[in-house]
C-alpha cells in the first residue's frame, strides 16, 4: 500500500482538527494542503516509526509550528497569497494548551501520542489540558441554541452547556423551529444535529440562521464523513456521535475563542 493510500482515511479528520485549531475552514485547509505538499515533496522524511495517522498529524504540527508567531510579530511562514490567510489570523494562533485539549478531546489521542505531536512530555500534556479547561471555566458566557431532535441527547448537550456557565435559549427539533427560535432570541453559538425530527436538515437550518446572524456553529453528527468530503462548504467545528462531554466542552470553547477574537477591542 502506498503512503498516499495509508494517509487517505485520516485526511478528513485532519481537516476537522485543522479547522478547529484555526477557527476557519479556509485557513485550516490551507495548513492541511501545506502538510500534504511537504509529504509529497519529501516522502522519505515522513515519520515511519509511528502509525500513519500519528505521522500525518506530526507533519502537520511541524508546518503549524513554523507559522506560530507571537502577537505583533511577522509570520515565519507565508501561507497568505493564494490561500488568503491574513496576518491578523496568524497572530491569534491557538495556544499550546488548546492544541493539547483538541488533540486529546476532539481527536482522541492519548496523552503520550499528543506529547509526541507537540514535542512535550505526557505530564506536560496533562497540565496543558488542565490549563485549557480552567480557561474554559473563565470564558465569557454565551447564549446557545441547540438544534437536536433526540430528547436524551438534547438534554445531555444542554447539561454540558449549562455546566460551562452558558445560557440555553432553546432546543429546536425542526428547521422551522430552529429559525424561529433564533429570530426570537439571537444566539451567540449554535449546536446543530444534521437529521431533524420532520426529516428537515440541520444544515439547512444553520444556513437560514447564518443568512440573518453572524454566529459560530458546531455540528454534531454520527456520520462526520458526510460533511468532510471536500466537495462542498464544510463546517469549521464538527463533533462525532457518540461524543464525550470533554469533546463538546473543547469545541464550544474553541468556537467562542475565535468568535471573541474577531471582535475588535472597545
UniProtKB/TrEMBL annotation:
4-aspartylphosphate carried by residues: 193
Pfam families from the UniProt entry: PhyR_sigma-like, PhyR_sigma2, Response_reg
TM region positions: none
Name of the featured protein: Response regulator
Entry superkingdom: Bacteria
UniProt organism field: Sphingomonas edaphi
Swiss-Prot/TrEMBL GO biological process terms: phosphorelay signal transduction system
Keyword field contains Phosphoprotein: yes
UniProt domain Response regulatory: residue ranges: 143-256
PROSITE patterns in UniProt: RESPONSE_REGULATORY
Keywords recorded for this protein, A-Z: Phosphoprotein
Family annotation (SMART domains): REC
Amino acid at each position: 500500500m502506498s503512503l498516499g493510500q495509508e494517509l487517505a482515511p485520516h485526511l478528513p479528520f485532519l481537516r476537522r482538527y485543522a479547522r478547529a485549531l484555526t477557527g476557519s475552514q479556509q485557513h485550516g485547509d490551507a495548513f492541511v494542503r501545506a502538510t500534504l505538499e511537504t509529504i509529497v515533496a519529501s516522502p522519505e522524511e515522513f515519520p515511519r516509526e509511528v502509525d500513519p495517522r500519528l505521522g500525518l498529524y506530526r507533519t502537520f504540527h511541524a508546518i503549524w509550528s513554523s507559522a506560530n508567531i507571537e502577537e505583533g510579530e511577522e509570520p515565519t511562514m507565508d501561507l497568505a497569497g493564494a490561500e488568503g490567510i491574513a496576518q491578523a489570523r496568524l497572530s491569534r494562533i491557538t495556544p499550546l494548551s488548546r492544541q493539547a485539549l483538541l488533540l486529546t478531546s476532539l481527536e482522541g489521542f492519548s496523552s503520550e501520542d499528543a506529547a509526541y505531536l507537540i514535542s512535550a512530555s505526557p505530564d506536560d500534556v496533562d497540565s496543558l489540558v488542565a490549563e485549557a479547561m480552567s480557561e474554559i471555566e473563565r470564558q465569557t458566557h454565551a447564549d446557545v441554541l441547540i438544534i437536536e431532535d433526540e430528547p436524551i441527547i438534547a438534554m445531555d448537550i444542554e447539561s454540558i452547556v449549562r455546566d460551562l456557565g452558558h445560557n440555553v435559549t432553546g432546543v429546536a427539533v425542526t428547521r422551522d423551529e430552529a429559525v424561529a427560535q433564533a429570530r426570537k432570541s439571537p444566539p451567540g453559538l449554535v449546536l446543530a444535529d444534521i437529521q431533524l425530527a420532520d426529516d428537515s436538515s440541520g444544515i439547512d437550518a444553520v444556513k437560514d440562521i447564518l443568512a440573518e446572524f453572524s454566529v459560530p456553529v458546531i455540528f454534531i453528527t454520527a456520520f462526520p464523513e458526510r460533511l468532510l468530503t471536500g466537495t462542498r462548504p464544510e463546517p469549521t467545528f464538527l463533533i462525532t456521535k457518540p461524543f464525550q462531554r470533554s469533546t463538546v466542552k473543547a469545541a464550544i470553547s474553541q468556537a467562542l475563542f475565535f468568535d471573541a477574537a474577531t471582535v475588535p477591542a472597545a
